[in-house]
Amino acid sequence: MRKLADLSALPGGIARGFRARGGTVILVRHGNEVSAFRDACPHLGLDLAWNPDAYMDVDNEYIQCATHGALFEPTTGECVFGPCIGDRLGAVAIEIKDDAVWIDG
Ligand code: FES
Q: Can you give the residue ranges of the Rieske domain (predicted)?
């Protein structure tokens, strides 16, 4: 396992990107839980953000594809608006221990 991020580096409800083997992993903290997704839209596979860590919509409510405006629910990764509605961001297996997020590899 490799440490991806300290929990203290993850603001509540706001997605952040971290480099990992196989590409960037998006982490979103919800209290003591963390969601982890591949930084790739399910319909074209594009990176979601224009700029590093610019993953959220203007209301900080959804993860947004900067290219097409698709919106993804930050706890499940489900697309709720846009061309891939009903699809989900690819989930990444993580483990939380010692106040940090860990990933295989
Ligand atoms: S690449 Fe799929 S909504 Fe932008």
A: 2-103
What separation in Å is there between the alpha carbon of 65 and the centre of ligand 1? 6
Task: Give the Cα separation of 83 and 29 in Å (integer).
Answer: 26
Shortest-distance atom of ligand 1 to CA 69: 3
* 16-45 confidence digits (pLDDT tens): 999 998 899 999 999 889 999 999 999 899
Measured distance CA(29)–CA(21) in Å, rounded: 21
CATH number reported for the structural domain that contains residue 68 in this entry: 2.102.10.10
Q: Domain tally for the chain? A: 1
Burial category of 103 from C-beta neighbours within 10 Å (exposed 0-12, middle 13-18, buried 19 and up): buried
- CB neighbour list of residue 84: distance below 8 Å, 6 or more residues apart: 41, 42, 43, 70
The encoded tokens of residue 10 equal: 């993850």
